[in-house]
Design brief:
With 329 residues, the chain is of the alpha+beta class. Helix 4 packs antiparallel against helix 7. 45% of the residues are buried. Strand 3 and strand 4 form a beta hairpin. It is built from nine helices and eleven strands.
């Protein structure tokens, strides 16, 4: 197999794995184009799926597309291919986020390839977790996953975790006071069950998780003030394992790297038997994003707040068919 002869079935499989990545409100804001003559797979931002009020700078869009890019690299390595990536290859085309040249290799990246079983097992779990510790060896593996993609991951101290929980609550209150923002959340989330054949994106009702009795864990509430009597309530863990993922700089290329690091952390955590949920709410407002930084660390820019632990698997969220994602020329 050479860069010029990769078959379309392989490319389709790679894009199907890429499309299993998480994204803000599960909007799945990515599109792919495979150029047969060069063996290059291009990743584009799908701006029809951005969230202009929630994500005006498109930082979250880049994070999601970066996560899809990491899945693509994992799938390629598992298929015995070497994915050579160029981020933001064309300064005149800001929608083109990455080019991936695919070629055969005798030495695929085995560290990436072994993560592939987790791609379709990983689902956000917004349910209560057990109040037990995460072993040091597991923490070190997820730290290493972030470092491998040029990002940092840290578990802040208990007092800062409490501050993050309060920041998430403050951000939720800001959203409640913003009708346009609430409408955007309603657009991408569903409080009533929907037939899986009718939904290809967005956050389904079963993925919301229960409402919290008291607020001890930073879990986003997607109801946006809508009644949801069938949802139920639960007590969440008192000592959540909250991690901050961050970068030294804060531009589009850094967001793409952070998205790749985020997904690598999530896949590694899944392989190690952990579940996770994410919240970007405290990071969607400049005032609360700055306050989310751990003042005892050197992390310059927080890109995502993660909650990790042992708990029930989250339900699968709907996915767009590959036919909608991939163009082959």
């Amino acid at each position: 197999m050479t860069a010029q002869t990769i078959d379309t079935n392989t490319v389709t499989t790679l894009v199907a794995d890429a499309g299993a990545a998480p994204s803000l409100h599960n909007a799945q804001p990515w599109a792919f184009r495979y150029v047969r003559s060069s063996g290059v797979l291009r990743l584009y931002a799908d701006l029809a799926r951005d969230l202009p009020r929630t994500d005006p700078e498109k930082r979250g869009l880049h994070l999601g597309c970066g996560a899809a890019l990491l899945n693509l690299r994992v799938a390629a390595a598992s298929a015995g291919l070497e994915p050579v990536v160029r981020l933001l290859p064309d300064p005149h085309d800001t929608d083109l986020l990455a080019e991936v040249r695919l070629s055969d290799t005798a030495h695929p990246d085995t560290a990436l390839a072994r993560l592939r079983p987790a791609i379709h097992r990983r689902h956000s779990s917004r349910f209560p977790y057990r109040d037990v510790g995460i072993p040091a060896a597991l923490r070190e593996r997820i730290f290493g996953a972030a470092r491998a993609e040029g990002a940092q991951l840290l578990f802040p101290s208990a007092w800062h975790v409490q501050e993050i929980v309060e920041l998430a609550g403050d951000a939720e209150g800001r959203e409640a006071d913003d009708p346009e923002l609430r409408r955007e959340t309603v657009r991408w989330t569903r409080t009533e069950p929907v037939d899986s054949a009718e939904a290809a994106d967005g956050v389904p009702a079963e993925a919301f998780g229960p409402g919290q009795r008291g607020t001890t864990a930073p879990v986003r509430d997607f109801t946006a003030g809508r009644p949801m009597p069938q949802r139920g309530w639960a007590t969440f863990e008192k000592n959540p394992h909250v991690a901050l993922l961050g970068t030294d700089h804060d531009g589009p290329a850094d967001w793409l790297r952070a998205g790749q690091a985020l997904q690598r952390v999530l896949l590694q955590a899944t392989m190690d038997g952990l579940v996770a949920s994410m919240t970007s709410q405290p990071l969607e407002w400049p005032e609360t994003r700055w306050a989310a930084r751990d003042p005892l660390s050197a992390m310059a820019h927080v890109q995502m707040v993660l909650r990790l632990g042992y708990g029930p698997d989250g339900p699968a969220s709907p996915r767009r068919p590959v036919a909608e994602l991939l163009d082959i020329i």
